[in-house]
């Protein structure tokens, strides 16, 4: 045994390891979806069954074209309040009974609303698939929207709204959206006090009746479906009588010609300035999607980004600084954000605009590009490591009008992005001369420095 230990020690000593270099990252393979089966019920409900036998659980996601952009003009907040009330009782079960029945099968169900979609999501042991689908269908089709629950939700939402409107970073994001999207529903970020107060049971029920229809939805089920015929029988039994409705429509967005603008939202007494700047970008279906995502991540997508290493680490202007490319179904938003001290707001804004500008004129290095590709590819693969991630991604891609190929070629698409493509998309979406800039802060302290960037519109 002693001789063996000596031999191992000698072998290890003979190996030279350069600890000044990161270990090489092995190439990631493209993600391969588990076996999937697509179908459509007679009432128009699109269904995707995904066989995943790793766990004896079923992940359920049901998505509707019923997000915030479908709120009637005077009623921003209607979609999110409708979603929050779906689990608060149905015609057959009150809120407590519904919660107890879901818990009794070891499951969970909830609902939420984003800009484009309303989503019902949950899980349960696969042995209780029938019950899970029954309860989810009951929530969607037969939610009763009790008056007391509506009153409580509106009261809580008003309190949340007051808190949100006290946060300068939210005010900056809200004003940026208004500058980019104008009168289109994508411009709405928060409801108003008046809209929350005007929402009532009749309006909530009408929204549900109009938009939560089978032919306006996609259902994704991920589970150990080695046999799918029993699953289709359950779906026919539990959801087959759900009646079709009109297909949801929303006004198309047509961006106006953009030019540099600077808006200062006055927040008297603020000791820091919250900055948000951005441009209208693209949905995921656009051919520029992958190059733009890579470019945005290089610019401000984490601790290896240019924003982080310069604006935060080198210059010390901001603690939090990042950029983000946000695709929606019909358009997109690219933005950079940071919080800075009043005394450096001019330099910080010019520095961020300068980084945007350099992306339009300078090729990224091979090492920088390789590092970001590794990061994005690894992050994507990790997100799909669990059935819940597969369910989330499949639902989002189907609602956006994409196919399985989007997921299965994601790593390949990221790996194929070249410096010239990054230059091209940067010139389209990062041009400082087209940037909408919003700063929330004390106008007395920062208006004069900001005016060195360009004409400033002050809003109080």
Q: What does it look like?
A:
There is one protein chain. It contains 18 helices and twelve strands. By secondary structure, it is of the alpha+beta class. It folds into two domains: 204 residues, 2-Layer Sandwich (Cytochrome Bc1 Complex, Chain A, domain 1); 199 residues, Cytochrome Bc1 Complex, Chain A, domain 1 (2-Layer Sandwich). The chain has a six-stranded mixed β-sheet, sandwiched between helices. Strands 9-10-8-11-7-12 form a six-stranded mixed β-sheet, with helices on both faces. The protein is globular. 42% of the residues are buried.
Strand and helix layout:
Layout: H1 2-14, E1 36-40, E2 46-51, E3 57-64, H2 78-85, H3 95-104, E4 108-113, E5 118-125, H4 129-142, H5 147-164, H6 168-181, H7 193-198, H8 201-211, E6 217-223, H9 229-239, E7 261-266, E8 272-280, H10 289-300, H11 306-314, E9 318-327, E10 332-341, H12 345-359, H13 366-383, H14 387-399, H15 404-408, H16 410-415, H17 419-429, E11 436-441, H18 443-450, E12 456-459
Parallel strand pairs: 2-6, 7-11, 7-12
Antiparallel strand pairs: 1-2, 3-5, 3-6, 4-5, 8-10, 8-11, 9-10
């Amino acid at each position: 045994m002693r001789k063996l230990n000596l031999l191992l020690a000698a072998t290890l000593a003979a190996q030279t390891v350069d600890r000044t270099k990161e270990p090489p990252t092995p190439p990631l393979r493209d993600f391969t979806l588990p076996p999937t089966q697509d179908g459509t019920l007679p009432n128009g409900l699109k269904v995707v069954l995904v066989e995943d036998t790793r766990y004896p659980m079923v992940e359920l996601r049901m998505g509707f074209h019923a997000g915030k952009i479908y709120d009637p003009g005077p009623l921003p907040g209607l979609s999110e309040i409708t979603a929050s009330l779906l689990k608060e009782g149905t015609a057959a079960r009150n809120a407590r009974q519904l919660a107890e029945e879901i818990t009794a099968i070891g499951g969970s169900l909830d609902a939420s609303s984003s800009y484009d979609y309303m989503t019902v999501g949950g899980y349960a042991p696969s042995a209780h698939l029938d019950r899970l689908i029954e309860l989810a269908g009951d929530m969607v089709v037969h939610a009763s929207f009790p008056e007391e629950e509506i009153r409580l939700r509106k009261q809580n939402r008003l309190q949340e709204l007051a808190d949100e409107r006290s946060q300068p970073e939210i005010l900056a994001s809200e004003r940026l959206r208004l500058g980019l999207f104008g009168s289109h529903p994508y411009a709405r970020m928060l409801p108003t006090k008046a809209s929350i107060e005007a929402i009532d049971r009749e309006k909530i029920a009408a929204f549900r009746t109009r938009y939560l229809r089978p032919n306006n939805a996609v259902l994704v089920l991920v589970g150990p479906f080695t046999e799918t015929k029993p699953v289709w029988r359950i779906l026919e039994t539990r959801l087959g009588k759900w009646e079709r409705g009109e297909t949801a429509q929303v006004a198309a967005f047509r961006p106006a010609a953009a030019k540099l603008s600077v808006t200062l939202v006055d927040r008297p007494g603020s000791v820091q300035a919250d900055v948000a700047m951005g441009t209208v970008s693209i949905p995921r279906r656009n051919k520029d999607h992958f190059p733009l995502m890579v470019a945005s991540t290089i610019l401000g997508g984490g601790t290896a980004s240019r924003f982080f290493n310069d604006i935060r680490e080198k210059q010390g202007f901001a603690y939090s600084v990042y950029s983000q490319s946000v695709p929606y179904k019909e358009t997109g938003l690219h933005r950079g954000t940071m919080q800075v001290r009043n005394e450096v707001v001019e330099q910080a804004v010019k520095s961020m605009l300068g980084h945007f500008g350099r992306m339009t004129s300078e090729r990224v290095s091979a090492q920088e590009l390789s590092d970001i590709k590794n990061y994005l590819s690894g992050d994507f693969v990790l997100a799909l490591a669990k059935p819940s991630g597969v369910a989330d991604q499949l639902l989002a891609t189907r609602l956006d009008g994409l196919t399985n190929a989007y997921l299965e070629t994601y790593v390949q698409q990221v790996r194929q992005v070249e410096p010239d493509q990054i230059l091209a998309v940067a010139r389209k979406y990062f041009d400082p001369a087209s940037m909408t800039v919003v700063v929330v802060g004390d106008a007395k302290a920062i208006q004069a420095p900001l005016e060195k960037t360009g004409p400033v519109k002050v809003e109080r």
